[in-house]
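Write out structure tokens for Amino acid ABC transporter permease.
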Amino acid sequence: MSETKSDVAPRRKGLTRRQRRSLSRGIQYAAFVALVILFAVSADWGRLQNQFAQPGIADRMFPDVITLALKNTVLYTVTGFGVGLALGMVIALMRLSSVGPYRWLAGIYIEIFRGLPALLIFIFIGVAVPLAFPGTEIIGGTYGKVALALGLVAAAYMAETIRAGIQAVPKGQMEAARSLGFSPARAMVSIIIPQAFRIILPPLTNELVLLFKDSSLVLFLGVTLEERELSKFGRDLASQTANSTPILVAGLCYLLITIPLGFVVRRMEAKAQEAVR
């Protein structure tokens, strides 16, 4: 019996799904290569080298860019992170408190300091605090002011991260600790918080990377030559030489810290996902 046209299923014409995906990737790669070639051909590399890559000017920055500027940047970041972590822990516990005023105060703090630009916090610490409390000096001078300013900014974000980590710990952990005779406070400190930190370690490390970059705002506090961080150091030398090479070198010094930290964050996130599986 011969088959009629209506009995024969129509054959699909065109590309398969796999072929369409391959074609799409090929087009994207081709577009990327075309953009790179266009940029390479159209850019004036001579002028760029003149303005951003003068070896003689870069040599003048060493060793001070490492022993002074980078050291101060790291010191500002680490102390700010320490203040932010301590304050963030207190605020996170206040957010989880059964006492209403504690929760409200913590919520107000988080909304205010998470909403304000970090620049305004630095100006507040450098200008408003001395006006409000005449004759009062923040411990540590400029280093103390930077640590406080960065800590106030970081604490708002860290508090929410820590709170989320604590709430991510199974409730059975607290119940088990209580059944063993632990008080609520001791169970929180000994059982819940250590497990929460294992969960939130990657985002906290990411916050450290952000603070490292925010330390450039220290210039709004007014710093001496010995207190300059990378951005201030690079800008000062760029003004003296009328060349942007110091800015590029300062940027590369930031990458010396942020790239390894970023790699650490990705590794920790990968390990956390493996542990969940």
